[in-house]
Amino acid sequence: MRPRKGDVSYTGSHPSGAAGPSEVYRIDPDGTRTAIAWRLDLVNHSPSGLSWGYGGSGPAQCALAILADFLVNNDELAVRLHQDFKQRFVARFGDRWILTGRSIRKWLAGNGTDAETEAYEEKLQQRTVSRVVEDDDGYKATLDPCGHEVWFATKPPKVTYCGECINELVEAMRKRRTGSTGDY
Questions:
Q1: What is the domain count for the chain?
Q2: Does residue 62 sit in the same domain as residue 150?
Q3: Residue 77, SS3?
């Protein structure tokens, strides 16, 4: 997973008096405003569009769209968490809203407690690419300091985020929050 860099935020508003679906925009640190994809390719909750302010299919699609955009290249995690994200945020939005990347990070860290947020922020730190091996399918990069391997279709950047570390952290926090050990 590579979360969006900088202090991104998301905003939406229902069209006033106009027919048509609501749009959600990502606002990047430089002020650029970009409509986010609905991500019907991941789960098709609401082909008629994104919505919020209640617990239905439009808000589920909105939650998925926001998480998939924020958790760059980690669609699996976005799918796994979007219903909880909908209940915590999207179902509670009013007609106009703004959600900061920081709020999303805090939520991902487990209800925003200081220790969990700090641990999550530490895991979000960029990893240095220490070794790159090219093969027929792309490039395999080994990351420092965690040692995990990441595959890239194109030549990898010098720094990146480690999705494996983030997935392990989110799963551990989910288990801690629910009291589940995963043992049956």
A1: 2
A2: no
A3: helix
